[in-house]
Structure to design on (315 residues):
């Protein structure tokens, strides 16, 4: 049966969108629009202190400026209620309770320093694997520790290897106990963690295609496992390469921080779209172009495997 694609853009509004976010919005939107699917805007404002509503409103304004629209979510909501994660706590609680009922959760009292000491050596991408230090605590030990500090909650991963094919990174595999470890699904301040919220939302919203930055490739195996555990079908993942400058160097902090507040004073939406489309291999020269003009010829095959290069005049 033909399944229409459902894609989404899921920014964390901790500031103005920067170049990487704009590229992610553009490519995820183009892929969905090319396939005639549904596009969702989800605001990942789990941490209300870091993510005020004013930033979420600016994201909508910036997307409109760019010429990107969405069918569901953002301030207009949709069938799954609010698309602001900060307003979906009761939903996350339901899924959290399901995991608890399966005895898959345990409280973790480790401080930052203890975590460091209790972690396996860093993986090549900088991630650390929790060795399960708090997994074996007795009820008495837990009660005693609770008097002194709040606990985060971890989910126990099984002895399983998750294999998936990323749309750009290719076949990836991860052995959950040694390369992921039991991971946090609720923070010690009670806020549900990104890893739980993103799976619950993608699952409930029927998302079939996740397009996001390569920095989240390392979170994908655990999310696929959690999708299955919660009864969802995992989406197809496409992790887009990093943006480099014209000489192929990593963007410096200053360049990477080029946000839309600055970019909107220097470029028209079509100039900015053209520069990013050129970096992504979608057009041969960095000429001004609207997102809509890119829909017909869009193909993931055009994207380079390696980092993307922005045109010179950007800097
Ligand atoms: N909210 C995350 C971010 O802005 C993206 C999460 C995702 O796409 O899965 O980096």
């Amino acid at each position: 049966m033909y399944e229409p694609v459902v894609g989404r853009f899921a920014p964390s509004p901790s500031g103005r969108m920067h170049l990487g976010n704009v590229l992610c919005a553009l490519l995820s939107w183009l892929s969905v629009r090319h396939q005639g699917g549904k596009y969702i805007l989800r605001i990942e404002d789990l941490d209300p202190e870091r993510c005020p509503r004013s930033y979420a409103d600016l994201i909508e304004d910036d997307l409109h400026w760019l010429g990107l629209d969405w069918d569901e979510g953002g301030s207009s909501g949709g069938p799954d209620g609010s698309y602001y994660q900060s307003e979906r706590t009761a939903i996350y609680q339901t899924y959290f309770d399901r995991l608890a009922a399966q005895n898959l959760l345990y409280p973790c009292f480790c401080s930052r320093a203890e975590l460091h000491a209790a972690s396996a050596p860093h993986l090549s991408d900088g991630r650390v694997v929790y060795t399960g230090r708090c997994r074996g605590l007795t009820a008495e030990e837990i009660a005693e520790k609770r008097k002194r500090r709040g606990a985060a909650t971890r989910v126990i991963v099984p002895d399983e290897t998750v294999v998936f094919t990323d749309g750009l990174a290719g076949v990836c595999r991860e052995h959950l106990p040694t390369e992921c470890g039991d991971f946090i699904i609720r923070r010690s301040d009670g806020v549900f963690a990104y890893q739980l919220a993103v799976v619950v939302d993608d699952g409930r919203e029927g998302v079939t295609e996740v397009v996001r930055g390569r920095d989240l490739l390392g979170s994908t195996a655990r999310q696929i496992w959690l999708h299955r555990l919660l009864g969802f079908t995992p989406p197809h993942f496409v992790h887009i390469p990093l943006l480099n400058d014209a000489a192929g160097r990593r963007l410096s902090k200053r360049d990477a921080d080029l946000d839309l507040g600055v970019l909107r004073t220097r470029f028209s939406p079509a100039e900015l779209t053209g520069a990013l489309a050129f970096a992504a291999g979608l057009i041969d020269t960095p000429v001004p172009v609207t997102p809509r003009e890119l829909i017909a010829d869009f193909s993931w095959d055009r994207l380079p495997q390696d980092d993307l290069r922005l045109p010179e005049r950007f800097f």
Remarks:
- Residues 19-34 form the longest helix (16 residues).
- The domain at 89-240 is CATH 3.40.50.620 (Rossmann fold).
- The radius of gyration is 20 Å.
